[in-house]
């Protein structure tokens, strides 16, 4: 991961509503959460939630998967792990 990719991910997570959405999805596990359930848990209007989900999808932090009529949002844990590694990769190298 390069600095521009990391900055882009952090920019999208920098919005309080998107961060709440992402945190809720990370809690849900690899099965994800149906959009309707996510909307209910967070109390975010549908159009607002859709806007924030689109932003998270655009940078690859989540993906969506349809099962019949239910649309699931699934966190991309690999990308989250890459971001965490990028942020901590050089931890304490300048420590004396």
UniProtKB/TrEMBL annotation:
Stored PROSITE patterns: HTH_ARSR_2
Residues annotated as domain HTH arsR-type: 1-95
Keywords of this entry: DNA-binding, Transcription, Transcription regulation
Pfam name, any one: HTH_20
SUPFAM superfamilies: Winged helix' DNA-binding domain
UniProt-listed CDD domains: HTH_ARSR (cd00090)
Domain of life: Bacteria
InterPro entries assigned to the protein according to its UniProt record, in alphabetical order: ArsR-like_HTH, HTH_ArsR_DNA-bd_dom, Metal_resp_trans_reg, WH-like_DNA-bd_sf, WH_DNA-bd_sf
Molecular function, one GO term: DNA-binding transcription factor activity
Keyword Cell inner membrane: no
Statement: the UniProt record of this protein carries the keyword Transcription: yes
Record-given protein name: ArsR family transcriptional regulator
